[in-house]
Design goal:
CATH class of the largest domain: Mainly Beta
CATH topology of the largest domain: FAS1 domain
Number of helices: 9
Distance between the termini: 36 Å
Strand order of the largest sheet: 11-12-13-14-10-9-8-15
Oligomer: single chain
Strand content: 15-25%
Radius of gyration: 21 Å
Structural class: alpha+beta
CATH architecture of the largest domain: Roll
Order of helices and strands: HHEHHHEHEEEEEHEEEHEEEEHE
Length: 360
């Protein structure tokens, strides 16, 4: 396996993207350790640009940098993870919109108005998802000197007053298991068990392309499962549930506070054992419209889904319709069902290990 740039070169369909990255002096940044997620327009996507647009971009380096950085996200994100988000911030500073509402129809999530045509191309330092269109940031909120973009005019003005200092590509988050910010989390705060030794950095997610078959059931002599709370470089809190053998079964969304993450764990402990299982992987089964309404609590549910490449995944919804845990991908539906069984087995009694104490 190689870095993102070499992986793109080997693919042979990103000649215009690579030329652009070299012209903007960004290629070396995408050869660094990262990790990065790149929404990569192929040559056909660049060919769809209006006439002379590509040539004019090559002559305007700040604007070219803005466009290219708008295609890069910090962290190593699979389509499974991206599909759980509504927006995600790029290293350019502005956000892209994610539309995954047709995922149950075996369609990949859309990024702005572009379709992901090929996904989860793994490199040593990140992930590549191929787009059929070039994304364009809001140039009205983009610095014309260094290409950095902003959400509000006030933020752009503040940046301008700093003298247009050219910024390097921001350092990405150190882990691949990055999830969106979701603050809703129900009741009950359990006691957090502090570990005697703490790793200096959060443990990275295993390869997210395809999960292997779930391991054999844990015997009584083995250790119990564990929820591990970690903190990313952006100061957000998240957790994952590990089985007794150390295998990560599900990951959480990101939370603004540790207390919210702990409540998210409590919700999984409460809902996992009693949650029903719904299989939305067959052609005969249609994804139901949400029936959750304010003030009405329904049964929690594990929903099994299948993506366009016939890989299976599931998520756990609480009674209010909130997704509180997301699995990785599996090769078969039976493996996904075993993953659900593992969550039901491990979650209720899993201890909580706070790996964020070194960040305090």
């Amino acid at each position: 396996m190689t870095d993102i740039i070499n992986t793109a070169l080997e693919a042979g369909i990103f000649k215009m993207l690579i030329s652009s990255l070299q012209a903007a002096d960004l290629a070396d940044s995408l050869r660094s350790s990262g990790p990065f997620t790149v929404f990569a327009p192929d040559d056909e996507a660049f060919a769809r640009l209006p006439k002379d647009t590509y040539e004019s971009l090559l002559k305007d380096v700040p604007k070219l940098k803005a466009v290219l950085m708008y295609h890069v996200v910090a962290g190593k994100l699979t389509v499974d993870e991206i599909g759980q988000m509504n927006t995600i911030k790029t290293i350019q500073g502005q956000e892209v919109k994610i539309d995954a509402h047709k995922w149950h129809l075996h369609m990949n999530p859309k990024i702005n108005d572009a379709n992901i045509t090929s996904k989860d191309i793994v490199a040593d330092n990140g992930m590549i998802h191929v787009l059929n269109r070039v994304l364009m940031p809001n140039m009205e909120l983009t610095c014309p000197v260094d290409g950095m973009g902003f959400i509000t005019m006030e933020a752009l003005d503040a940046h301008t007053k700093m003298g247009h200092t050219v910024e390097k590509v921001p350092e990405p988050m150190p882990n691949a298991d990055v999830m969106p910010v979701i603050e809703k989390a129900p009741e009950i705060t359990p006691v957090v068990e502090q570990p005697t030794t703490v790793e200096k950095s959060p443990e990275p997610m295993p390869s997210m392309e395809v999960m292997p078959e779930v391991v054999a059931p844990v015997t009584e002599k083995q250790l119990e499962g564990a929820f591990e709370i970690i903190c990313d470089a952006g100061g957000k809190f998240r957790f994952h549930l590990k089985a007794a053998n150390g295998q990560i079964i599900v990951v959480s969304q990101s939370y603004g506070t540790k207390e919210s993450a702990i409540k998210g764990i409590a919700s999984i402990k409460k809902n996992a054992l009693v949650a029903k299982i719904a299989d939305f992987t067959t052609a005969q089964v249609k994804m139901p419209e949400s029936t959750h309404k304010a003030g009405i609590v329904q049964d929690p549910i594990f929903e099994i889904q299948c993506n366009a490449t016939d890989k299976y995944r599931f998520h756990l919804k609480a009674g209010n319709g909130q997704i509180i845990a997301v699995s990785q991908s599996y090769l078969t539906r039976q493996s996904a069902e075993k993953g659900i069984a593992s969550v039901k087995k491990n979650a209720p009694t899993a201890k909580i290990i706070d790996q964020t104490v070194t960040a305090a």
